[in-house]
Amino acid sequence: MEYQITESEQGIRIDKYLMDKMDISRNRVQKIIKSGDVLVNDESVKNGYIVKENDLIIVEYIEEETEIKPEKMELDIVYEDSDVIIVNKDNGIVVHPAVGNNSGTLVNGLMAYSNSLSSNNGDFRPGIVHRIDAYTTGLLMVAKNDHTHDFLADQLAKKTVHRVYVALVWGVINNDTGTIDAPIGRDPKNRKKMAVIAENGKSAVTHFRVLERYKETTLIELKLETGRTHQIRVHMNYIGFPIVNDPAYGRKKLIDDTGQCLHAKELGFIHPKTKKYMEFDSELPLCFTNILDKFK
User: Is 83 a catalytic residue?
Assistant: First the structure.
């Protein structure tokens, strides 16, 4: 659900605003906000946030009576111990339930796989510390307890988590390396998409390095300083090298329906218990290499 604040609606607490709009109790609204299921201009807020004119509120709300059920799923578990699970997410898998989609997500599979998942993100996002798009493949951290969740989330907030992506983009990039420093916000022309927005956009920085050049495309490695929604897809499209097979931000016709050629390849962090640095790597999936082979 989305709400755009008008001039006459501004100046009240967000919990009071949503209580009236959604016709549910303030206690329930506050639980939804606390669980991270309410974003204002793509940022989490607290219950006491005062809404302003033109604020865009997105509520990923599931009815309280909806039960998120464990579902047996083939999971590619790269590593597991008593605190952490590292999953290599497959193509087309949504990370967690949201409005109208409470089945077939990674969370459903994780609930069937493990009885120990953190509860910090509420009943509908157990274990989920961070996420990637449904049609982006690759590595994700999953927390098995709340202490681990807080420890990993703190590293993400401090930008100390090592994250490297690999992407295939349209066009031949001449520079061997580059940095894109361009703020990202909700696209005013299409509220379901993100865009580079000079005013009111959130800081977003992406570094890239060319791995291989082909006749029509370039294979690149990317590192993120920030973690904005759709950041890599938006930034590469912005500089004129959109990701191959991206249905939302691409400029060319789709090659197939497997989604964008974007893979979260490397993931590194400090372990919450041992305090030692751990790093993981994953191979490009078939959905990516099948398209890549067409350009070699």
Answer: no
Which residue out of 81, 133, 146, 176 is catalytically annotated? 133
How far is the C-alpha of 247 from the C-alpha of 262, rounded, in Å?
Answer: 12
Domains and CATH numbers, the chain: 2-59 (3.10.290.10), 64-158 (3.30.2350.10), 164-263+291-295 (3.30.2350.10)
Query: Does residue 201 have a pLDDT over 90?
Result: no
Distance CA 177, CA 55 (A): 36
Bridge-partner residues for 114, per DSSP?
A: none
- Of 250, 237, 1, 2, whose CA–CA distance to 135 is shortest? 250
If phi > 0 it is left, if psi is from -120 to 50 it is alpha, else beta; for residue 104 that is: left
Q: Per-residue pLDDT tens for 41-78?
A: 888 889 999 999 888 898 876 655 467 889 999 999 99
